[in-house]
Amino acid sequence: MRIASFAAPLLGLAALSGAAPALAQQKGDVLVRVRAIMVSPNESSGGVQPSFPGARIGVTDSYAPELDFTYMLSDHLGTELILATTKHQLQGRAALAGIDHLASTWVLPPTLTLQYHFLPHAKIRPYVGAGVNYTIFYSSKASGALKAAIGNTDVHLKNSFGYALQAGLDFDITKRVFANLDVKYIDIDTKARLTTGASVNRVDSSIDPLVFGVGLGLRL
Predict the structure, then answer these.
(1) How many CA atoms lie within 13 A of 92 on its CB side?
(2) For every residue of 147-207, which 3-state class applies, written as one string?
(3) Residue 156 neighbours by CB distance under 10 Å
(4) pLDDT tens across 9-65, in order?
(5) What pTM does this model have?
(6) In terms of Cα–Cα distance, which of 210, 211, 200, 192 is closest to 57?
């Protein structure tokens, strides 16, 4: 998995950092990070049933700010709440490839992870995490191209509950401010419902994005 390939060099970099002076990260600390993220779906879908069984649905990448809060339960263990929202386009694939923009939707995937911090007292501090995610889809709208092709259509995507995996590192800039690199894999599965008059089509889709982030943090 790409998460494992991301975590390995982080551990190597931390080992090379030696015992560089740093303010100890310890139990009771609150870490606040602001990241710029890229959400890159690894999407797959079934057919659009029953009208377009040979069609598939794709999901575009998106960029957004992200805010997260970590509370250190011990020197090595922390729990992180991750908050961000992104807008994505749904694209036609296979039999619907002629309609590049089918619909758009906003995605709010609050995620809670339990992290293990390998070197909490070092200048460079790698971590890994695992947790849960609940994804909310809102403000979903059919595109003009889809409406022109099949008529006025209401789009609804079912919310999703899944797991999340995480790896990253913090690098001290000052005693309280640090830089951060982070990558997450989020399990997101949804069912889209397209209602056109009396006709209802449904499609199952796995979005499963990798979320790449870079930013700054503050130790409170």
Answers:
(1) 17
(2) HHHHCCCEEEECCEEEEEEEEEEEEECCCCEEEEEEEEEECCEEEEEEEECCEEEEEEEEC
(3) 14
(4) 444 444 444 444 456 689 999 999 999 999 999 999 999 999 889 989 999 999 999
(5) 0.86
(6) 192
